Amino acid sequence: MKARFTPALFAHAEAVLGLLLRFDYPADAVVSRYFREHRELGHADRAFVAETVFAVLRRGRSIEARCAGKLSDRRRLLAGLAVARGWSQRELAPVLKASEEEWLAAAKAMREEDLPPAVRCDLPDWLYARLEAQFGADETLALAHALNQPAPLDLRANTLKTTRDDLLAKLAAAEIAAQPGSLSPIAIRLRDKPALAKHPLFLEGAFEVQDEGSQLLGFLLEPKRGEMVVDFCAGAGGKTLLLGALMRNTGRLYAYDVSDKRLANLKPRLARSGLSNVHPARIEHERDQKIKRLAGKADRVLVDAPCSGLGTLRRNPDLKWRQGETSVAELTVKQLSILESAATMVRPGGRLVYATCSLLSAENDEVVAAFLAKHPEFTLLPAGEILAKQGVAIEGDMLRLLPHRHNTDGFFAAAMERKA
Known about the structure:
Blueprint: H1 7-20, H2 27-37, H3 43-58, H4 60-66, H5 73-84, H6 101-109, H7 117-120, H8 125-135, H9 137-147, E1 153-157, H10 164-173, E2 178-180, E3 187-190, H11 200-203, E4 207-209, H12 212-221, E5 228-231, H13 238-246, E6 252-257, H14 260-273, E7 278-282, H15 289-293, E8 298-304, H16 319-322, H17 325-343, E9 346-356, H18 365-374, E10 378-381, H19 383-388, E11 399-401, H20 403-406, E12 411-418
Parallel strand pairs: 5-6, 5-8, 6-7, 8-9
Antiparallel strand pairs: 1-3, 1-4, 2-3, 9-12, 10-12, 11-12
């Protein structure tokens, strides 16, 4: 159902955009709080507001260029609707003033080819420079274009309770259009973005919402029945739940995180999942006593490290304006420290997987290279071969997922083995 476009609805979008452009808090948290405070907005109205303000965040630099120096939240929104969402002046008629028609037509007519490369890609200069150095100008343009599209909605079938085929059949019966994921053997991609939080299939734990790329990290770790496994930066537990299902609810799975709030969010998900082998625990830091107690005992350890999140710009477009070269440099020091700490838990012959949702080699290849140089007791495993055994067709020594190539979030992962 499409929202009815009115001046009042436009005013809500303008208010949310004003809050977002302060960059005080993550965009999704700001939008969620606004919706809690304005419960009169229905599902379609909320979808319009969220999609519109996120479009403005994604296309921030090119929209500013089209505004020709006369910036206001109102102009940003109008340009966002006209350029990023393709609305015509007729569709904008309920809010468009006669004095704005000529300006908006000129903004829409501006050719992308005439914009500087970083502006055309809607990236800050520092980030464009890094990506161009890694990928080249043409592929950076394709990557940026993909990052500026809304992400699809992916589900992960909970194999403790159902199969992907059975879940697809039940979704079809509920008139939710869906298809199998192209990479993960348990992923489902929805055509639209229906409200799922109260759907019976969700409440009974038949699926979790999880990007298809994120699901591949579990297959790269490849946990087995009865093993001791550690999810070192568990967060709200999306990957923890996948690992538990791959272990068939056997063995011991430790979910560590430094945030009480994130671990609290895991509890209701655990209850729905049917898992009983998960042991969540808060740690103070990467040198916590809980980690020392597991020294050399874990069969497998997953380190989904805190990172810039630049691979998730389709979902979190504000990150490209919130991160900078200084914050990335600080993160790389933290990432290596966390990886080294997690590695102490891996038994001889055990597996360590380092992963980020970053696009930058500084957070990815360079961290792995620095770790391996300092720790010759670990060797790199061919990621493509591990995944191929499980029916996942991704080539390469390390896992590299990119939105313009794989239609997933951007992910990096490296699998390493401790010598026996």
